[in-house]
Amino acid sequence: MRRAFLTRWCAVIALACACAAPAQSTAGSFSGARTMQYTREIVAYGPRYNGSDAKLKVEAYFKKFFAPEAAKGWLETDSFTSNTPAGPQLMRNYIVRYPGTKPGVIVLASHYETNYPLRNIPFVGANDGAATSAILMEMANHLRAATANGKKLDGYSVWLLFDDGEEAVQQWSHTDSLYGTRHLAAKWQANGTLGSIKAVLIVDMIGDKDLNVIREQNSTSWLEDTIYQAAKNTGHAGNFFKTKGYMEDDHLPFLQRGVATADVIDSDYGPHTESTPDGWHHTAEDTLDKLSVKSLQTSGDVLTETIQLINQK
């Protein structure tokens, strides 16, 4: 599991049918309702741990959704094999690139797989992987509209990254976690891509009905400030930065290489009891009924505004 160390400003706190085609839209504005539909469609496949049929079906679902981008050469499948405590595992990152008018790239990323150690329970990761993958899909609708008929984005290029292997295969450690982003950050450093990246926004667990995105203390300060300004600009400041803390998440491989990166995460998910000390995180209770269209809309509004504010810097 990802590790979290959270504090209040002054006090410590506890922390569709499986064969359905994804809904399509050419609308330019972000839709929380459509994001929820994409989340339902991902969750309907079942637990998508590495090696499962469900994970392969979700990957096929992504490829079908991004067929228009693939036809333009904007979709990359980044396949790699990771040595894990369960042996070698084939993993895949998916990168969708939308070209901009300014030199430089903003990356928006979410992991999409579910936890391998929980493969024997009905853990569908509605909030943990599905909702944020759906946010990226809905963001694609906005980006498609802006790049229609050969146009480019008015600003930096935006890349959507669906990364694999965020979850531990056995027990969270620096070597058993973040497989996809560790692989890709090293690859992009080796081929010079990192030098063109202006910001990486990791999104994780931000569909929760009780949305409270933390100010993540490992993240780049100016980028966290920009996210909060975006929350204020869109009228959503009440859902952001009431708490602060340190997370070990997909942002770390980029931060360690000097890239401006922020982890946009609400890690306080569900009631904390003796039997569920981490709430609904990594339990079979991480289901669609714990999410809301309102929270997905809030998250999408703030991310869209954040990208605009980064373009203005």
What would you say about this model in short?
Helices cover 32% and strands 25% of the residues. It contains eight helices and nine strands.
Mean pLDDT: 92
- Could you give the distance between the termini? 35 Å
Q: What coarse outline follows from CA principal-axis ratios?
A: globular
Order of helical and strand elements: EHHHEEEHEHEEHEHEH
Q: What is the gyration radius calculated from CA atoms? A: 18 Å
Biggest sheet architecture: 6 strands, mixed
| Low-confidence segments | 5-20, 23-28
- Helix run count: 8
Helix content: 25-40%
Count of β-strands: 9
Q: Strand order of the main beta sheet, please?
A: 2-3-5-4-6-9
Look at the helices and sheets and give the structural class.
Answer: alpha/beta
Provide the β-strand percentage band.
15-25%
Protein model, in words:
49% of the residues are buried. Helix 1 crosses helix 4 (126-146) and helix 4 (126-146) packs across helix 8. This protein has helices at 32-43, 53-65, 67-71, 126-146, 179-190, 221-233, 252-255, 293-312; strands at 3-8, 75-84, 87-98, 100-111, 153-163, 197-204, 213-216, 240-248, 261-265. A six-stranded mixed beta sheet has the order 2-3-5-4-6-9, with helices on both faces. A three-stranded mixed beta sheet has the order 1-8-7. The protein is of the alpha/beta class. The chain has eight helices and nine strands. The model is unreliable at 5-20 and 23-28 (pLDDT under 50). 32% of the residues lie in helices and 25% in strands. The chain starts with a strand and ends with a helix.
